[in-house]
Every structure is written in structure tokens, then in C-alpha cells.
Amino acid sequence: LTRVISAGAPVTPAVQRRFLALLGPEAEIHSPYGATEALPVTSIGSREVLANPEPGICVGRAVPGVDLAVVPIVDDAPASMDGSSVPPGEVGEIVVRGPNVTSSYAEDPTATAAAKVRWDEAVAHRMGDLGYLDPGGRLWFCGRKAHRVLTAAGPLFTVPCEQVFNAHPAVFRTALVGVGPPGAQEPVLCVELERTARRQRPTAELLALGARHERTAAIRTVLYHRGFPVDIRHNAKIDRVALARWAARRRR
Questions:
Q1: Alpha-helical segments (H) within the chain
Q2: What CATH code is assigned to 3-144?
Q3: Distance (Å, rounded) from C-alpha 246 to C-alpha 192?
Q4: I want to staple 29 with a disulfide (CB 3.0 to 4.6 A). Which of 37, 46, 178, 214 is the partner?
């Protein structure tokens, strides 16, 4: 076995490192990024990921024939791109165009209007995902737009924040959710511990980890969940809406 392809959810460098240890020296894990409406958009191999151990989830460069842009975050549905892209390093919404991009949703004009925009003469797709481009043109995934936490001090993006706390050895996974009205949400870190660490409550250690990074310093509330609600088809995509409701009940 020399090639493994993993898609559907972000693959952390730690997971890639653990899996590669089970394979031969020539093996490589490829992680394409895309959506049902546009697949693939980018791809990256584990050799590149592990050779540049920067924090975050890098999903690589656009595949041939696909154009991508990172545009300012808006919640309405513009009919076309206005030509504005955010500079490298700034988080925005990912928009793609190319021959593999669907032009509409069948018999659903509302969904089509929300996700499809004109980019010059082509139909482009608003991924609903957030990310940024680095100076080398690689795309870094920062989570879903709908999942960003809108605090009084500004937005927090789920994936970059969670990566900080996922480094703790007792943590299986984390999910950042917002409690309260948008614009005044309290950021709450929900934690699912490793099975061997279920009796631990490493709150002080997690808060110390968060305090070391500007993007996570404002996160001061930690809640422990026995098992996150996830998509019933697999164990990767967290139901963050349900988790936010649970966190809100716990914060009353």
C-alpha cells in the first residue's frame, strides 16, 4: 500500500503521522479538499504537511483547472463577485470556479441563490467554508462560516482554535461553540477526552495552552462532554448546533 486518500473532514498532522507509522516508507496520504458541489478543489500530500509542521490545517493548492479566491465574509447572498479578495493571511470565505463546479441545486432556487455567484462569465460556488491563503498560494482551512463564534471582541474561527487544545495528550477532540446572541457570544470549549483519560479534568492545563496564543486567549470556559454528537454516517463531522444547545443549557 503506497497511497491513501482521506476526505470528508480535516486530517490533522498528528493523525497522518500515526497512520504513516503503520505503512511502508514509500507510502503517502493524500488529503483532497472540496464539496459535493465542487470536488476536488485542492489537494496536499502528507510529505508536504509533515515537512512544514505549522499549526493549522493546510489543504494545499488548487488542482489544475480550478480557480479559488478568499473573499470577505458576508452572510447575505451577493449575485456576483465584486473582485475583492482578502490579502494573504486574512481569513475569508472560500469561493471556487471550474469545470467541476455545479451550476445550481435541482429545483431549489433559494439554495442556488445563496451559494452560487457569477465570477466573470462563469458560475462560482461559495463553499460556506472559511480559510486563508499563505504567501505560497496554499489554502488553510479554518472551519465552516456558520460555525464561527461571534464575540464582542470579534470572530473566533473553530479549526485554528481547536488545534491549540487538541495538542493536549488527554484530549480526543474539541469543539468551539458560541453561547448567546451573535456579536456577544461567549466562546465555550467543549472537550471530549481520550477513553483512558475520562476521569481527568485538565481545565487549568487547557486554559494555560489557550493563553499562549492570541487567537485562543479569550476562551475561558471549558465543558466536558462524554461523546460529541456526530453525523450518524461516520465519526468525524461534529453536530455543532446540537453541541451549542447542550453548552447553553450547561451555562444557565
A1: 13-20, 46-51, 109-115, 158-166, 203-211, 240-250
A2: 3.40.50.12780
A3: 14
A4: 46
pLDDT of 159-172, one tens digit each? 999 999 999 999 99
Query: Which amino acid is present at 83?
Result: G
Q: In which region does residue 79 sit, left (phi positive, over 0), alpha (psi from -120 to 50) or beta (all else)? A: alpha
pLDDT for 153 equals 97
- CA 115 to centroid of chain Cα atoms: 18
CA atoms within 13 A on the CB side of 87: 0
Mean model confidence pLDDT for the chain: 95
pLDDT of residue 14: 87
Query: Where in the chain do CATH 3.30.300.30 domains reside?
Result: 148-250
pTM over 0.85: yes
C-alpha cell at 128: 460556506
Peptide bond into 40 cis (omega under 30): yes
Q: Which three cell numbers stand for residue 141?
A: 482551512
